[in-house]
Specification:
Blueprint: H1 2-9, H2 16-25, H3 47-57, H4 61-72, E1 81-85, H5 88-96, E2 101-104, E3 121-123, H6 128-131, H7 140-150, H8 157-176, E4 182-185, E5 195-198, H9 204-216, E6 220-222, E7 227-233, E8 238-246, E9 249-254, E10 258-262, H10 270-276, E11 285-286, H11 295-303, E12 308-309, E13 314-320, E14 330-331, H12 333-337, E15 342-344, H13 358-365, E16 373-377, H14 379-388, H15 391-394, E17 395-397, H16 402-411, E18 415-418, H17 421-428, H18 432-448, E19 468-480, E20 483-484, E21 491-493, E22 499-505, H19 522-537
Parallel strand pairs: 1-2, 1-10, 2-6, 10-22, 11-19
Antiparallel strand pairs: 3-5, 4-5, 7-8, 8-9, 12-20, 13-19, 14-17, 15-16, 16-19, 18-19, 21-22
Length: 547
């Protein structure tokens, strides 16, 4: 197969015997539909001289040959664009603009992603749904200002502007292609109503749309194929292809137009999380899509020379229930506190206003005993909460069913249901004296409408009779905020802060959109919007007017 393909390329300047030697030096092993062994060198390059120069410059021959080969050959069956790895919306956009696309995914399926773990929240400005509400007056700049302010002004304006200008367009595309039922709701950190929530509270609704559209377009998707090498033509400042695979099963793939890297962040494993973010090292739940370990970013650093930025920032929700080492589900405690519940520490005392943005709560946990906190509710609060949200959505992300939640309450390990405060204190270890004192203070604050502890003004319900419900939570480290730097068109920047030709990025791989703190709903919104636009830009798309 290799000989036939080499002959097809017809480079007459190389002797027959050289093909075998080059194959041995630069073996490209593939499998499946794209599986070929490819090797070729420009007829104008004398192999002996080439190798001598490389030795003198102390450059690895294989690496240089790889770039040279991929730059010079016009191999049949090679895609115009590669999407590495999971933002399928980018593949759809590139395809619809006439490109031949192939997707390489490190995970086992399209559902092994952070999107599948999210609660179905997609912030967007200018969608048809938002525009249809006459009470909502929003614009992309106000959206951008909210993101930057919430991120303590540590955001980079390029990805923020690229996101906020096009978020409504991206959401409308998903809606047009069969997105399941959804609604608008207010959300902390946003000065306007722009949070589009799936009625199911499931991020997989977005993946369902994209899986259907990928299949309809017959776009090739290769799972279990992480990127291990990027081919970079330094002279042209262009990424010209990638090598993907594992365990001896590798595919070298040339990209005529370029690649879109959408390989997620660093929250997939405790090791990658702890390496990059010392503030959460060893703490709480590590949660993310399979393969979110930063390895693809390091490939880009090594092979292309792209700098990384904002790696120290993490979206850490104070919502994680640790049940198995560093894993566990998620509790949406704000639904409980919105119906009369309070947040306390092991001493039984409140430590923050329950209306604080959830990412801003996490740093406060370091000052609490055992680095955790608890949400406390009486029976009336619990009943009001479950009228607003299903139990499996309140506690359960990513996979706990209502039955599992009820079973966990019976275990009395992280979730407690007790008839009396005395029993609750005994089972949980939370101070009984502290519980009684805090409830007394809270009930007076409800009565007087004055919260002398933390200044809440919306408290409506006192904590009354049991049974009492309480859930213990640690940091849930679900979204990293660092990665490669990009232009407003999501083109990756090199060490010189100049765009790298043929190299685009989307989703959690991109640095700086969230700044120091993640504002809820922007992760899913940014992932799909950046993918939506990157898939266009990589094909040469240009804006015709100001968005």
């Amino acid at each position: 197969m290799a000989d036939a393909f080499a002959q097809e390329l017809q480079f007459p300047g190389i002797q027959d015997g050289e093909y075998q030697r080059l194959l041995e030096a630069q073996l490209v092993a593939g499998s499946g539909e794209l599986g070929r062994i490819v090797a070729a060198v420009d007829e104008m390059v004398l192999v002996g001289q080439f190798r001598a120069v490389m030795r003198k410059q102390q450059i690895l021959v294989d690496d240089v040959l790889s770039v040279h080969i991929l730059r010079r050959i016009g191999a049949k069956g090679r895609p115009d664009i590669q999407v590495v790895q999971r933002i399928l919306i980018a593949a759809c956009q590139a395809h619809d603009r006439g490109a031949k696309v192939v997707v390489f995914n490190k995970g086992g399926s399209s559902y092994h992603t952070g999107t599948n773990l999210c609660g179905g929240l997609f912030t967007a400005c200018g969608s048809r749904m938002q525009k249809a509400d006459p009470k909502i007056k929003d614009d992309w700049k106000a959206f951008a200002d909210d993101i930057i302010a919430y991120g303590e002004h540590m955001s980079l304006k390029e990805p923020v502007y690229g996101f906020t200008k096009h978020s409504g367009e991206a959401f409308d595309w998903l809606e047009d292609h069969g997105l399941a039922a959804h609604h608008l709701e207010p959300y902390a950190g946003h000065t306007n109503v722009r949070a589009h929530r799936q009625d199911s509270f499931k991020g997989r609704d977005y993946i369902d749309v994209l899986e259907k559209e990928i299949k309809a377009r017959k776009i090739e998707v290769h799972h279990r194929m992480p990127v291990v090498k990027m081919y970079f033509d330094e002279a042209a400042n262009r990424v010209v292809g990638v090598q993907c695979g594992r365990e001896g099963n590798f595919i070298n793939c040339r990209a005529k137009m370029g690649i879109v890297m959408a390989t997620g962040g660093i929250t997939g494993t405790p090791e990658s999380l702890d390496r990059w973010v010392p503030s959460v090292a060893g703490k709480g739940v590590a949660i993310g899509g399979e393969g979110n370990d930063g390895s693809a970013m390091m490939v880009a650093v090594r092979d292309v020379g792209t700098p990384l930025s904002h790696m120290q920032y993490i979206a850490s929700y104070p919502c994680g229930i640790v049940v198995n080492g560093r894993s566990g589900p998620y509790c949406r405690w704000w639904f409980i506190t919105g119906q009369g519940g309070i947040l306390i520490n092991k001493n039984g005392a409140r430590f923050i206003t329950e209306r604080e943005g959830i990412c801003h709560v996490t740093p406060k946990l370091a000052g609490n005993p055992d680095g955790c906190h608890y949400v406390l509710a009486d029976q009336a609060t619990w009943e009001r909460t479950l009228k607003k949200i299903k139990l499996s959505a309140l506690v359960g992300l990513p996979s706990w069913s209502e039955e599992r939640v009820l079973a966990e309450f019976k275990k009395q390990e992280n979730l407690w249901k007790c008839d009396t405060l005395e029993e609750l204190s005994k089972e949980s270890g939370v101070s009984l004296e502290g519980l009684k004192k805090q409830i007394e203070i809270w009930n007076k604050a409800v009565e007087t409408k004055v919260d002398n502890q933390f200044g809440r003004t919306d408290q409506e319900w006192q904590i009354g009779a049991g049974p009492y419900y309480m859930i213990r939570m640690f940091p849930w480290n679900n979204l990293s905020c660092g990665g490669v730097r990009v232009t407003e068109e999501f083109q990756v920047l090199g060490w010189d802060m100049k765009p790298v030709n043929g190299f685009y990025a989307a989703g959690e791989t991109v640095a700086g959109v969230h700044g120091a703190f993640y504002c809820g709903g922007n992760a899913c919104g940014f992932a799909h919007t950046s993918g939506f636009m990157a898939g266009k830009y990589v094909t040469g798309f240009k804006e015709t007017k100001e968005a």
